[in-house]
Amino acid sequence: MAMGPSDGTPGLGGTKGLFSPVSVDRISEVIVEQVRLLIREGKLVPGDRLPSERSLCEQFGVSRVTVREALRVLEASGLVEIRVGARGGAFVIQPSSERVGKGLAELMTLASMTAGDVTEARMVFELGILPLVVERATEEDIADLRALVEQGLSALESGSYTMAMSAAFHVRVASAAHNPAIEMLVQTFHGPMLMSLQQAHVAAPLMGPRGAHEHFELVEAIEQRDLERARGIMTRHLQRTADRLANYSDPRLENPGGEE
């Protein structure tokens, strides 16, 4: 999109006709949907600055209060960033997988989905990508995974091992598939995965050491390109989590502290 010479906004004529006046209930939601559509169509891209509040009010035919409400929703959705100062404004940004993951985790605490459901999905996903991980993992991937394993084992000895360490290991395993779509999916799923592991820890708080040692074994299997061994380790690893959750009296997702 062409930008203005000094303020970073689309050039002359660039925004004219992009936005349509609205006259329905909950007007701010309609504004949000228009901006989302423009982003999907590539008419607004990361780095673009939206027109000023006054200009948006004129183009949409709404009050400044309504425009500000829409901008707050867009910011909370991770689609724009509000910057202050002389060069401030509302800027389109690249959506963050981490932000989406946090949003999913919050949504799941309010839904009927359980930690067991999340673990079942993990079994399908993490076992499904193992062939790619075993085939494509590089020396750098193996080194990073070994470093995470060592950090986890050291934390076990000091009593500081956390579930976040386990989740980080699983995310790094997925990135070794070297598929951007897979990496985006696992990053998005990070929040729900973390919460389900925390719930599993509440059900069986003494199981952390076994999981950390299985991480070590999994890295060895990946390095040796031994798919069957890697699949067996991962299956036992995830099945144990599923069994813990199945025997837990309150399987709904919560947000306790803990470890795998």
UniProtKB/TrEMBL annotation:
Q: Per UniProt, which keywords does this protein have?
A: DNA-binding, Transcription, Transcription regulation
* InterPro entries per record: GntR_C (IPR011711), TF_FadR/GntR_C (IPR008920), Tscrpt_reg_HTH_GntR (IPR000524), WH-like_DNA-bd_sf (IPR036388), WH_DNA-bd_sf (IPR036390)
Q: Name one GO molecular function term.
A: DNA-binding transcription factor activity
Question: What CDD domains does the record point to?
Answer: WHTH_GntR (cd07377)
Domain named HTH gntR-type is located at 25-95
- Domain of life (superkingdom): Bacteria
Q: According to its UniProt record, what is one Pfam family this protein matches?
A: FCD
Q: Report the PANTHER family cross-referenced here.
A: TRANSCRIPTIONAL REGULATOR, GNTR FAMILY, UXU OPERON TRANSCRIPTIONAL REGULATOR
Q: In its UniProt entry, what is this protein called?
A: GntR family transcriptional regulator
Taxonomic classification: Bacteria, Bacillati, Actinomycetota, Actinomycetes, Streptosporangiales
